[in-house]
Amino acid sequence: xxxxxxxxxxxxxxxxxxxxxxxxxxxxxxxxxxxxxxxxxxxxxxxxxxxxxxxxxxxxxxxxxxxxxxxxxxxxxxxxxxxxxxxxxxxxxxxxxxxxxxxxxxxxxxxxxxxxxxxxxxxxxxxxxxxxxxxxxxxxxxxxxxxxxxxxxxxxxxxx
Length: 160
What we know:
By secondary structure, the protein is of the alpha/beta class. It has one domain (about 5-160). It is built from 5 helices and 8 strands; from the N terminus they run ββααααβαβββββ. It has helices spanning about 25-30, 40-45, 50-65, 75-80, 95-100; strands at about 5-10, 15-20, 90, 110-115, 120-125, 130-140, 140-150, 155-160. The strands form 2 sheets. The protein has a 6-stranded mixed sheet with strand order 3-2-1-4-5-8, sandwiched between helices. Strands 6-7 form a two-stranded antiparallel ribbon. The model has no long low-confidence stretch (mean pLDDT about 95).
């Protein structure tokens, strides 16, 4: 399954991570519950795909253990490495992390701006994101037979 880059903007800052393309609908469904910050967004997403959400939360914890505003050597090393390994979740704290947060993965790049209530599909080759849709819940990395439904509130916009 192709990966997609997701960048989330909230009142405190910006985070960026890659995840499975089906995460697009999961994050849109989480947005339908009006999260104010990325922690709440990931908690809601975890109800639909616990492994996906947990990997983001865990990755940000590791980032915080190894990086500070005064010392971003660990993430800079990972972002500039020549190998094609996956970059773990990170906070956008400088120009390098900002540039990387706006680089699409195989299936694209989508920015979730929680403050502005806007979802920007910078590049999306996976599926057209709908204001109202359904998807499959995931358990232990596998889709289940259980479906979820969501409807974005009127204040939310989806761009291209």
